[in-house]
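Hello forum,

I keep getting stuck at the same step: I have a sequence, I want structure tokens, and every attempt I make locally crashes halfway through. Rather than fight my setup again tonight, could one of you with a working pipeline run this one for me? It's a single chain of 486 residues.
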Amino acid sequence: MRKLFLLFSSALLAFSAASAQDHGLEQPYIPETDQAVLQKLDQWQDWKFGMLIHWGAYSQWGIVESWSICPEDEGWTQRQPYGIPYYDYVKKYEALSTTFNPTKFDPSKWAKAAKGAGMEYVVFTTKHHDGFCMWDTKQTDYGIAGSKSPFRNDPRKNVAKEVFTAFQKEGLHTGAYFSKPDWHSEYYWWPYFPPKDRHVNYDVTRYPDRWKNFKDYTYKQIEELMTTMGKIEILWLDGGWVRARKQGTKKENDITAAEIDTRPTKQNEDIDMAGITKMARSHQPGLIVVDRSVHGPFENYRTPEQQIPEKPLSYPWETCMTMANSWSYVPDDKYKPVNKIIHNLVDIVAKGGNYLLNVGPGPDGQLHDEAYTTMAAIGEWMKINGDAIYGTRSIAPYKDGKVCFTRKRNGNVYAIYLLDEGEKLPALVTFEGLKPAKGAKVTVLGAKEKISWKATATGTQITIPAAVQQKAWQHAVAIQLSAVAS
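Reply #2:
Ran it on my machine without issues. Output:
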């Protein structure tokens, strides 16, 4: 089989990191050594397509999650009404916890829609930076199950558990998003001092006991998630400015200037990732840990946000992107066309990545109708073309014009032709840089007709019969090139 595969391509595409201004894609990657984690990462790379869910008390206002209480980036997180004093606004924002009552919450509907779309895993926001907890935590009263929450007596109050159970029931893998910073915790934003930015607002070297309390709080919350939610396969940690730093130096694990923070007064916000990871994996063996944008041993894969790298990367990666425009619920949010989403998926998978597509439930617990129709349309395409997506890796050249390439471990290669809106599949599909083995069988997924092909001086020409052209193709068409045994 190895010889058959080599007939398709003399070598894999040379990996390079481009468009790496965010999340340090060009920074050195430190491979995992735990064999159970390496096995899980390999499985995760087969899943390809997942759902990210941002949901919290902020959804009642239809605003950006958490950031409006942070005293920076005022241009895009403007408080309403404009000019309201900061502490008055925070008081109103935190009071959202007393009115958040998602009575129409039905995670089974989300899970069925995700499965129908061909998604293989979910990452749910258990806690964003504002500190509002979406599970029945014992570490704070600030959450969906807290004593002031109108949802506290609902049998579904342990929301994260309900979500994970619903998705696990549908056969999807589950991951927990967790914010390392917590702007509600007195051990992170101590009320004695005003917050100045997204960082801890006191000197951790002067008040080490307070910082230790925050570390213990974080540890216990993550331990709750690892011990009460069933099987969790990904711990997706956000808030990369909370990290270990060597003061006065810029080391490899420090964030780059274009990422997250450019301020010169960074503190050593060390929460003991080694200890957290050891504990988490003792409860969830093989757990993938994603310490986002912190380039070190606990960043098992990287997460370019709202962007797709120009070329394949030399390590596991996942583009996280919104299905609409906003991460969190906005009443009249505009959704991306299905054609765009599928083209993104094909582009990402051809480059060896995964696609994590975000939805934002509303204050009542329901998704926009368009979220469901979008996922249903994606699912219709995946039913026909999923074999060209799942369990694949990149192959040189990953893209030539409107054709993207993926490969299976068995040597099969797929050439996926990207259709513009309203475009018909052309009579000839040609591409350079890849030639099937002599005697290879060529088929179009979703068609039974015989497909002929011939090698050209630099690549391949595939002839599409009129009967195949006339089919109601949408978004993209996958052409399988499978070698015959010698």
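The longest strand covers residues 121-127. If your local run keeps crashing, start a new thread with the error log.
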